[in-house]
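Predicting holo structure, adenosine-5'-diphosphate bound.
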Amino acid sequence: MTILETRELTKYYGTGENQVRALDGVNLKVQAGEFLAIVGTSGSGKSTLLRCIHGLETVDDGAVYMDGELMDPADKAKYREQRNRMGFVFQHFNLFPNKTVLDNCTLAQMTVLKRSREEAEKTALEYLDKVGLLDKKDSYPNQLSGGQKQRVAIARALCMNPDMMLFDEPTSALDPEMIKEVLEVMKDLGRQGMTMIVVTHEMGFARHVANRVLFLDQGHLVEEGDSEAFFTNPKSERAKDFLSKVFYDAQ
Ligand code: ADP
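Done. Tokens:
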């Protein structure tokens, strides 16, 4: 079942001579329960694609559909509901520094979903447990490691009971020894059936955990396919060139 679709999604930044076409007619279908990795060189439009899907950026042309229904910013109430079905995890966590881990996880539940504090805390504790951070519930973000902050950010997104999770380079800001703990949480989520769309530079993760890989280049969706096939037998020259650059070859 297709849960999310983009049709001819196009996005420009800037004007005149300085205009950049960050996305150029991207057509994409995501199936419910799928684990999708988006890869490509820096500046290829990966982040923009994710941000346009979530409505963090306006779209210049084309559109996003959820369960076959148009996501139309002009239809405010419906659009809000559709956006609330997606959890978004940022590279730089975006936690509130002056709030405890627990409060970070309850705030949006109470303001957006109108849950009582009791109900919101119950849900927050459940998801903090799931990401292995129940014992940090009363800590503040600056008392946590980068990996722990990112796991809190994931728990916070899960508290909203989304149908799909979008990750924008979730491990890029982390020290190397903290990357795995975050990837493990993401892998578990995928195994439990969450629909996952992940922009990542972690090629081992994309290859072994994702079901499908999308390769973007200069705003174009150049290639997509089964992740193992993409890494072992890329079809396009651009994907071959990309893979030859990202994998260290000792010879
Ligand atoms: P990626 O995530 O693959 O690194 P991005 O989606 O961040 O790529 O960027 C795609 C293109 O759009 C790049 O050329 C980038 O410089 C440009 N871009 C991204 N965000 C902005 C912005 N806010 N203003 C101007 N240009 C931007």
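The longest helix spans residues 176-191.
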